[in-house]
Each structure stands twice: as structure tokens, then as C-alpha cells.
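Researcher: Good morning. I'm working through a list of sequences from a screen, and I'd like to move beyond sequence-only analysis. For each chain I'm collecting a predicted structure so we can compare shapes side by side. This is the next one on the list. No need for commentary yet; just the structure.
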Amino acid sequence: MLNSLGRGMASAVLGQGPLNNAVLESFAIHARVMLGFLYEGKRYPDDVVAGDYFDDPNDWVKVRPSIPEALIPVQKRANKEVAHLSYKRLGIADEARLWRFIDIAAAIGSIMAVFLRHVPAERLHPDWLPLPEPESP
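Model: Good morning. C-alpha cells for this chain:
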């Protein structure tokens, strides 16, 4: 879904307006969720994180790549510019509001590929098997 949203937004096929804004929000929230899954620990007992799929959650921490540069601002931007009402968003210049959709989707996709290579196959839903090749942006 993230790749499809990223390609759609990068193509500017939606133009400007409410539909574009809704897809941007969907992309930003989905990217934030994926970063939380891949890099954060549990905030709440029912949170699902990548480490849950390993016998020892540290096994995932050992093999996952560092957060790519393209993803460093994503969590904060999704929080401040999309998910929460914030005075900070008022001072953001138009050029700083641009999202690197393809770069973000590709970076998350490459991290998911690492996850899928290392996670025990029996821990995955059958829909994931056989494991897909990483999607190109």
C-alpha cells in the first residue's frame, strides 16, 4: 500500500485539493506506522512490533539496518504536520512541506525485505508465503 500511495503522490495525478490531502495523510500515517513496527519498542502491551516475530526480539535489532536518511524526518513530520494539531505546522515553508514519497517508500520497502529474509517463515501469515521479492519504487 505504501508503495502504491507513494507512486500516486509522486505522479501528481491527484492534483491539489481534498483527495490529494487525504492520500498524503494516508501515506504519512502508513509510513509512521511502518517505522514504529520496524524500529520502536512496545509502548502498549498490545502493540505489534517486528521483534514480536522472533524468539528473542534482539535478534531483529541485530539484523535490521540503521534508519536511512530519507526516513529520519518521517516520524516527526507525520506527527507535527499530519497526526496532531500543532502551531509548528504554521511556520513551515511550502518547499519544506514536500514529501520524498518514492524515497520513503523505497527505504521502508528495503527494510521490510530485511525483515522478511530473517523472520522465521512459520511466524508469517500464509499470504506472505512464498516471500515476495522487494517491490521496486
